[in-house]
Q: What sequence folds into this?
């Protein structure tokens, strides 16, 4: 047996027993023993399954140094003997003192005379009914106190945490939807206690407050899957999908680095260190700012016209002082057919290039939607270039899911002409049509199971190389937003990424206004589904990319209640991602336009999801903010029920320190003091609504106590000075604003003055004073005198 360690754990490698073990130094943390690896492959008609077993001829080379993007790694290599067909395997274990996790990968070498076809590379199998293997999650296993965080395959795939007593949420729509949202190499079973996750996942013991994270640092080579059986004796499996890729004689295949780490459930560094390391491995370069703009899709859909784009551009330009959006994105509907990107509908008689010129002339950035990898069956592209399509074993085009009222198809990007066409489209959009902001949608279509022109590539390799080619075609100066994309294969190649299902004007999923059969579908468009992933994937923001939570809909003629609009706006605002408004702005009432205004500028900071492993979807968020007024907390309490929810404010529920707080609920305009040790009864939250709460630690002197100017309720204050019987502050949001702010003073306010004019004030109990302000865009310096 060979043992090596870093400051966090011991790795034991036992080639004689054919297993290895992961043992944290802290005995309270999860540990895995008797871990085995295995490979499933085929040579012609013979399928072979091998796994590490006792008594097999293994050798072990230790302490080699491997330079990497993560630093120098100390590598121990476990080499196998020869398997049937001439296959050799080696497992490379890597440790680094600066990294709190184990890295390992499997390399396959074909030393035989004939090709092999690789189906699955299993990097971890532990626990279950094997008496020599155990998955210990810290303390005695209890399904009542065990949770699993499952990451979905692509943007729209449901992501969230489940109790071990739950069943994973799957689609019942079969070939209509599953090709889009379910990885073909990820099992699609539905039974209590059985879970899968794509790319990475976590298992948590909520009683011992410990967690185990495992997955991959990248998906350049394979799509990775984690499987957990959380009943009886828990078991874990982690594998890379081989996709039946051909491994020719004399060639190698190597998985991406797998990762394994244990930690305390409340310790954010467990997940954050993994996310940061994956960002380093994928050479992520984050944009400097979070974008905001207008998108045509959720009002006009495919009925968008050049005129409707111009009308909304003019509305944005006319309202820029109050709604300072940065770009205009033309979404689907301009092209004659999906796949035929160079011909335009009659409603775009001059194409899209003149619109880019007009958008740019108005001082905004032009943005354009494209779906370069998916093809509509009625497109000229499909009829003129049938050999570009990915096909199945029978020679039929592979189903890419039911979209645009048809079963769509995907391009085979291993056909050089097909990849060249996709690259030509995005390059034309950037260089000839002058769109520096491109939304690339339905990217999963390049990674469907099928018979590829180049059978030596895995689906992950095809997608990664295809996305790299698109990025090279447009250059690093183009802002790329990925959508409908398997996360790991585009990591480092896109600037922003959709992280949830499409939003819609319905709270629950519907299809052509039919709701009942679809209400439990977790992946299809709806406000509820979109908000779920906005919250559960919030930690990815500003680590892997700018999170795209999809669009904000504020118009009154959707089927969303005002409370549901508040919930959507709150989720978008507190998770820090991009802000896209998608209503017809010329027709938008002023009170609804204001719902978007108060989110600008975007906070840009990501909320802590307090109850990720306690509630599905999460219900408690917290952001700690600081400005000239000092530090305070912005909190959200969501109500996912169909009835109003009575609740009390308790600092411990949000992991706040004990103490007195001044509270203000933004959407409800409710203010109250909260005293230490006395949970405070708040107004009931409406069905599907939210309480967006500012909690200001009580201060002995004058203090800020809420506003309706910005959802942060404090970032608008850029200077703050208190003197005897006087407060002076400056308000600035980089836009025009109108509304009020509250102060709690040591005595009653006598006068508030701005630019020599007396401001209107209202006085309330407990020395609370409300001061009304209005700015055309300039900062306001306000002096408040009190007795």
A:
């Amino acid at each position: 047996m060979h043992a090596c360690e870093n400051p966090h754990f011991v790795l034991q490698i036992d080639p004689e027993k054919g297993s290895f073990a992961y043992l944290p130094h802290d005995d309270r943390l999860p540990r895995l023993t008797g871990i085995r690896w295995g490979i499933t492959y085929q040579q012609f008609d013979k399928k072979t399954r091998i796994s590490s077993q006792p008594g097999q001829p293994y050798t072990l080379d230790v302490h080699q140094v491997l330079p990497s993007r993560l630093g120098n790694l100390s590598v121990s290599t476990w080499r196998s003997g020869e398997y049937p067909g001439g296959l050799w395997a080696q497992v490379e274990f890597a440790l680094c003192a600066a990294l709190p996790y184990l890295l390992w990968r499997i390399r396959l070498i074909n030393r035989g005379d004939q090709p092999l076809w690789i189906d699955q590379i299993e990097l971890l199998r532990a626990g279950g009914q094997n008496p020599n293997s155990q998955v210990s999650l810290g303390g005695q296993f209890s399904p009542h106190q065990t949770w699993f965080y499952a990451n979905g395959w692509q943007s729209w795939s449901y992501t969230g945490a489940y109790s071990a007593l739950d069943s994973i949420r799957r689609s019942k729509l079969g070939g209509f939807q599953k090709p889009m949202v379910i990885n073909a190499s990820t099992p699609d079973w539905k039974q209590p206690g059985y879970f899968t996750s794509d790319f990475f996942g976590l298992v948590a013991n909520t009683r011992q407050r410990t967690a185990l994270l495992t997955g991959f640092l990248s998906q350049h080579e394979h799509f990775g899957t984690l499987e957990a059986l959380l009943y009886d004796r828990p078991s874990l499996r982690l594998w890379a999908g081989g996709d039946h890729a051909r491994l020719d004689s004399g060639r190698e295949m190597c998985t991406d680095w797998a990762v394994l780490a244990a930690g305390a459930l409340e310790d954010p560094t467990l997940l954050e260190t993994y996310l940061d390391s994956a960002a380093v491995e994928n050479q992520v370069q984050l944009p400097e700012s979070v974008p905001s703009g207008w998108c045509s899709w959720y009002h006009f859909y495919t009925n968008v016209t050049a005129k409707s784009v111009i009308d909304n551009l003019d509305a944005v330009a006319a309202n820029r002082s109050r709604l300072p959006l940065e770009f205009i994105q033309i979404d689907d509907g301009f092209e004659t057919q999906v796949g035929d990107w160079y011909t335009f509908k009659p409603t775009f008689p001059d194409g899209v290039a003149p619109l880019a010129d007009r958008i740019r002339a108005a001082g905004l950035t032009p943005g354009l939607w494209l779906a370069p990898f998916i093809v509509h069956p009625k497109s000229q592209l499909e009829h003129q270039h049938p050999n570009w399509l990915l096909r199945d074993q029978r020679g039929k085009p592979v189903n890419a899911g039911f979209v645009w009222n048809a079963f769509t198809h995907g391009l085979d990007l291993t056909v050089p002409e097909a990849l060249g066409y996709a690259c030509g489209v995005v390059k034309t959009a950037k260089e000839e049509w002058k769109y520096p902001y491109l939304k690339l949608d339905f990217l999963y279509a390049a990674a469907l199971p099928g018979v590829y022109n180049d059978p030596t590539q895995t689906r992950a390799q095809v997608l990664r190389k295809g996305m790299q080619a698109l990025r090279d075609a447009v250059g690093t100066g183009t802002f790329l937003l990925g959508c409908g994309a398997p996360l790991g294969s585009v990591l480092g190649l896109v600037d922003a990424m959709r992280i949830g299902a499409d939003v819609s004007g319905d709270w629950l999923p519907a299809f052509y206004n039919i709701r009942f059969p679809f209400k439990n579908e977790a992946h299809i468009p709806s406000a509820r589904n979109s908000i779920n992933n906005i919250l559960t994937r919030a930690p990815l923001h500003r680590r892997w990319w700018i999170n795209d939570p999809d669009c904000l809909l504020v118009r009154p003629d959707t089927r969303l209640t005002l409370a549901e609009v508040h919930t959507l706006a709150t989720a978008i605002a507190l998770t820090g991602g991009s802000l896209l408004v998608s209503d017809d702005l010329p027709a938008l009432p002023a009170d609804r336009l204001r719902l978007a205004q108060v989110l600008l500028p975007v906070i840009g900071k990501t909320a802590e999801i307090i109850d990720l492993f306690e509630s599905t979807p999460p219900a408690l968020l917290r952001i700690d903010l600081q400005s000239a007024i000092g530090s305070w907390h912005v909190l959200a309490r969501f109500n996912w029920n169909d009835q109003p929810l009575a609740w009390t404010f308790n600092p411990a529920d949000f992991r706040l320190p004990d103490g007195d707080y001044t509270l203000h609920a933004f959407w409800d305009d409710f203010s109250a003091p909260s005293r230490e040790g006395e949970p405070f009864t708040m107004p009931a939250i409406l069905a599907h609504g939210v309480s967006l709460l500012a909690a200001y630690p009580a201060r002995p002197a004058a203090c800020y106590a809420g506003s309706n100017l910005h959802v942060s309720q404090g970032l608008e204050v850029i200077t703050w000075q208190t003197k005897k019987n006087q407060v002076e502050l400056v308000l600035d949001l980089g836009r025009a604003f109108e509304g009020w702010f509250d102060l709690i003073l040591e005595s009653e306010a006598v006068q508030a003055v701005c630019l020599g004019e007396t401001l209107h004030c209202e006085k309330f109990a407990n020395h609370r004073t409300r001061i009304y302000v209005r700015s055309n865009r300039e900062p306001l310096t306000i002096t408040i005198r009190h007795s």
Residues 416-431 form the longest helix (16 residues). The two ends are 79 Å apart (CA to CA).
